[in-house]
């Protein structure tokens, strides 16, 4: 099973996170399938590759709670629902 989750980067007390698609059995810093975004909680910056996220969600990937919240604020799920209604 594939999950969309955070991968910690940066240095001590200055954590930044990559949003990655990764196998559920891998550890947090394990090998990811693809990098799909970036999240900086200190500066409150987010960069998302929305087409890649939508592709993984269509294939059945499950986002973690934090990634779900970040994606929801960015409007990824509204695009997902628009794409599903367009193709149905």
From TrEMBL:
Entry annotated with the keyword Flavoprotein: no
Subcellular location: Plastid, Chloroplast
An example Gene Ontology CC term for this record: mitochondrion
Main subcellular location: plastid
NCBIfam families assigned to the protein according to its UniProt record, in alphabetical order: S16
Protein name according to UniProt: Small ribosomal subunit protein bS16c
HAMAP family from the UniProt entry: Ribosomal_bS16 (MF_00385)
PANTHER family, sorted: 30S RIBOSOMAL PROTEIN S16, SMALL RIBOSOMAL SUBUNIT PROTEIN BS16M
Family: Belongs to the bacterial ribosomal protein bS16 family.
Organism: Peganum harmala (Syrian rue)
One Gene Ontology term from the biological process aspect of the record: mitochondrial translation
Keywords from the named record: Chloroplast, Plastid, Ribonucleoprotein, Ribosomal protein
